[in-house]
User: Fold these one by one.
Assistant:
Number 1:
Amino acid sequence: MSEDRATVTIEVDGREIQAKAGDMLINVTDAAGIPIPRFCYHKKLSVAANCRMCLVEVENVPKPLPACATPVNDGMKVYTRSPKAIAAQKGTMEFLLINHPLDCPICDQGGECELQDVAMGYGGDVSRFVEAKRVVPNPDLGPLVSTDMTRCIHCTRCVRFGAEIAGIRELGATGRGEHMRIGTYVEHALNSELSGNIIDVCPVGALTSKPFRFRARAWELTQFDGIAPHDAVGANIHLHVQNGKVMRVVPKENEAINETWISDRDRFSYEGLYSSDRLMQPMLKDNGAWREVEWEEALEAAVNGLRAAMGSDSAQFGTLIAPTSTVEELYLAQKLTRGLGSGNIDHRLRQTDFRSLGDHPPFPWLNGAIADLEDVDAALVIGSHTRKEQPLLAHRLRKAALKGAYVALLNPFEVPLSHDAEQIAVSPASMVAELAAIAKAAGVKATGDLKKRIDGAKPDDRHKAIAQRLRDAGHGRILLGNLAAAHPDYVLLQALASELAQTVGAGLGYLPVAANSVGAAIAGAEAGRLPGWKRTDAAALDAGAMLEKGLRTYLIAGIDPELDCANPAGAVATLAGAECVVALTAYRTPTLEQVADVMLPMALFAETSGTYVNGEGTWQGARGVVAPVGKARPAWKILRVLGNLLGLEGFDYESADAVRSELEAECEGFEPAAGEIELGDAALMLQNDGLVRAGDVPIYAADTLVRRAGALQHTPDATTGFVSLNPTEAARAGLADAREVRVTQGENSVTLPLEIDPAVPDGCVRIPAGVPGSAGLGVPFGAVGLEKG
Amino acid sequence: MSSALQERDKDGLFSPEVREEIDAWIAKYPPEWKQSAVMAALRIVQDANGGWLTTELMNDVAAYLDMPPIAVYEVATFYSMYELKPVGRHKICVCTNVSCMINGSDKIVEHLEKRLGIRLGETTEDGKFTLKEVECLGACGGAPMFQIGKQYYENLTPEIVDSILDGLE
Ligand code: SF4
Ligand code: FES
Ligand code: FES
């Protein structure tokens, strides 16, 4: 649609309104605040004009017209409440209700139902329909969405959502006339990571939240604002609270961040707040036995453990903190660590390659606004299962692709997408070579190790095409995802990506791993980086080195070490061997019981105030809206009191806001700069011999909270671990008819179910990380041996 | 380019004759509107399968035309000429819409039900006949009427019905 359309003047109910010619009447009246009832119209979906609820009278038109499908033109006179309009609306309402069960008293939508509201406002109070109402069986759409299809009014919003937004058409309208019904026809659980949005778009109680079903009435809930704590979008949410408990989460509209959508992970993860393994009380290990203690005793034990780390060998102390923590927690954790004289703090727990990128590497953020992603004309994504890592960023990229953008992905396996894309799927050990081939095709000039890689590359037509499309793009973007960040040759991938970006004139950005990866970098919770991402040369061990070397004392915050660290088996062994491990944790787990000495129960999102900085660098604060469970306390307060008890300077904060203000002051003048990568010696770490593991983190395994979200753990995307190979490799490994496989990685081995998947390339075996099944293994990328289990 | 939709090996779908026939229909539409051939494809596949469609066949049509399976189910469930359950050798589609009703389609239905021993929507045990009620077939001038296979039979009376059925194998 061209932007320079003529301005026209129309009159609605006697009021003059300016509008752009060709705009739909309903957009114009909505903007002017004139109410028109509607069901099928949704501003983010195509116009279906099938419900007829929006009928209005237009002068000189004999019949009422649907406002959602009537373009405005100059001089048009519209009446929304004339006798003719009212008769049309009333008639439509009566018609829509003939088959509706009118079961509002037992319907979860009651009190927040568009049908109820519109019926009140525009309907009659008696129905003339005396025939039998139809009955429709309810399809099982899986653990998230509950169905009551007799209530469906066939507006097809859910169908259009699937086709147009989620990009997987799973729902449809089958049958005809009175026999038409909405469903999947062949019953299956919805597969989209955005499926929960159909609950919101459904104007009636046909599609409702299954975990929330029958738990509370809409009018019993209090609504608070919040920020979703999982991915780099930081979707704006509403938390609905009853009796001090989060009952459900729904999106809060913010066009620039999440539009009107949220991912299923953001919507249903709140269930993890009330998981049965929440730690309710501080606990202390005495001679190997755990006992519940009061805060005072626990803090004293923690302080004693940490104080031993102060002084001459403070380098023997380190802090590992989850990248989903709030900025305030991250900032205080680094302040405490550095206050104790150690530079060992890190949030990059899944990263394995920490080799130097020189003094001024690019800041690891999206490098642009989230909404900008839909305007790229060419994008190359390196190492990302986009839909499952960053559901709403993937949605923006999809929008770009639908507008004609060229999207290419380089991954260790082919990922399911909902748009056309060029996918290069190769063994993880070949990813550097593939990227080097694209760089060579683009004419990248480089030196040192990078030159070696580029000189050795053999670009084929695909590499040339990608290089060309990036070069031709006015707005090109190269993005590095989680699978790149966990790769043993991450620095090589970054250096090649950066050179390529410069050569073709594209922007280089990162798809930050977690909700606050960017916030953690800004807060200084990173080895070698002070608040404001200022470089420091003070000795510092990164997350990998801390766990590899084995320190005497650790502070860990918000993590399950066997699931959140790059090398789970190694991390657990190292922590178990430490003298003292102080754990700030929301959950009590067997691993923490094994490795920790003190467990301090911390509050989770929604229970604590805090700030998240999303991928585009927007600081978004959220309040604690419910009290923490049991004796749990907000982690920033725990860190504050630890700082005080340790006698460290400057830990007297009144509020989380005060912590944030201090950090903001330290960030004065910080601008995420483009940076320049200077690669020192960087040999290729991952070699192509035998089968190489690719370990992606499944969407519902990403962090401690979502792992414990009951309903999500029953979706098709949930897994406790598997091994997948393509049929050729399976045959080659003698596993063609195997159901279980024994995987050996270094000295570790585990047995996992085998799945045959043609999306996995030759030379590669996909074994997800972050799940219990692979917790006994090492790093996500590396050589593995397979045998029949 | 690999697309979002499941790529299946299209040459492995259907028999060569069926493929050829579907391809002829696909060729009638611009390449990006391949899905327009869905109705013809369903008909061809149904004919080749003894007059009815299985879910697997509908999935195959979806894969062949690069459509989401649900979009094929929508078409197949919307139009009354697609059968989703096995049908008899002769499918009798009796019109009971307004013109036919006024001209006595009730009697025709009653007679058929009695003679065949089945109700509307059912198939005789020997698999010879399926009786189906349909909407206006556009032959109101010859009401009441029914269709068997590709043939219309108009101005029906019970006697004419008998003679038609007697003549069928
Ligand atoms: S289920 Fe809800 S959204 Fe879908 S068609 Fe029915 S009323 Fe509309
Ligand atoms: S909202 Fe206009 S027809 Fe449904
Ligand atoms: S009503 Fe029977 S053919 Fe038209």
Note: The longest strand of chain A covers residues 748-756.
Number 2:
Amino acid sequence: MLLCHVTPAIVLRTWPFGESDKIVSFLTESHGKLTGIAKGAKRSRKRFVNSLEPFSLVNLRFQDRAHSNLAFIVAADLAFGFKHLLTSLEKISFAAYLVEITDGLIGEREENRLVFRHLKDGLTHLDEQSTSLTFLTSFELKLLKLAGYQPLLDSCRRCGRERWDQCQTRWHFSPRDGGILCEFCSRLRKEIFSLSTATLEILTNLQQEKSLPPSDVSPPTGVLKEIRSVVVRFIEFHMEREIKSAVFLRQFSLA
Amino acid sequence: MTTYPTPLARLIQELSKLPGIGEKTAARLAFHMLKGTREDVINLADSIAKLRQEIGLCRQCFGFSEVNPQSDGETLCTVCRNPERAKDTICVVEEPADLIAVEKSQEFKGLYHVLQGTISPLDGIGPDALRIRELLDRIRGGSVREVIVATNPTMDGEATALYLSKVIKPLGVAVTRIARGLPMGGDLEYIDAVTLGKALEGRREI
Ligand SMILES: [Zn+2]
Ligand SMILES: [Zn+2]
């Protein structure tokens, strides 16, 4: 008998496979991101009832299969459905975006309980509360940190010049360097984003927040948009592709 | 496959491209054809060959339709041509197969509109990729009073339903969604006719 693993998991994506099966990718609590085959999921209403759609929190039971990267999904019982996420285009766009960037920044089978917790908290927040730019930016920054890509904002990534150095009024974010560059070093890079001292300050503060901030204390929208243009580009740099749901987020929300 | 004579091997290879058909089943079908009458095999080959020529999309609802050779391939399907069907209700589905599933339920007497897909945030498919503009044109054309959104009970299906409601309501037409009793993640094509009929009956305004 093959060992059957049990773990809480969030459904990230599903794809139809053949006449009756589905390929499903999950973010699990104990086995990182995992892709498996759900036999009969397109037809069967009993074994996978209501559970194999993006954003669902399930209790996943799976077995690894010899000679295959695809796990065999034994069962996925719905633990929580995040029902309110499907009640507006704005919420769907936000949730899809959170799922897509988490998916894009995490490798297969890399256990990361904190990232699992973070996505679960993010979806819970969206399910229960209204959406906001501050929430979104905080989610992105904390995800980057948990996935090991935290932007480094203390000093120039090339020459080490400290940010507190008064001679510098403008700093530049460089996705390739994973942090900020001073005026001089920034001339060596093609892709840079200029940040005012004030914006950089707010970015640093947001990054240091331990948890998702309450939606009533938000920095000005203009500053958040400036920060997000940098952060989104940085996430895409690490995902090595465009974020598809970002288009929806722009079309159906204020983000 | 090297052990089969070439014509047989070729047929087995083609058949095993079909959904749900493995090499074993393909071989069994091929042997069956080999044993059958010449006429049976020619009829089968002929209907396959004519399929793409004679089936097109209805110019009004984008469901499957028989192509009329006299009309440049432009054609109306049997539902759209039927004078008995109610012109004031349009049922919107994702794919032609879903239209057939709703027809089987025998609950619906109006017209259809096949979107040819869904909005999909995770695949980056937006409303412009679907037949939504054509649907809005039909609605602006006049007599429609209700649009029933019968997209699948999935994230993409819900996103599509919400979008349709957003763009159709301002035109003064009621937008309803088939009942939420359908299993999440399900596909209309595989939901039994009775359940689907009940879902249509229990539709609610969105
Ligand atoms: Zn420098
Ligand atoms: Zn038609």
Note: Chain A touches chain B through 34 residues (CB under 8 Å).
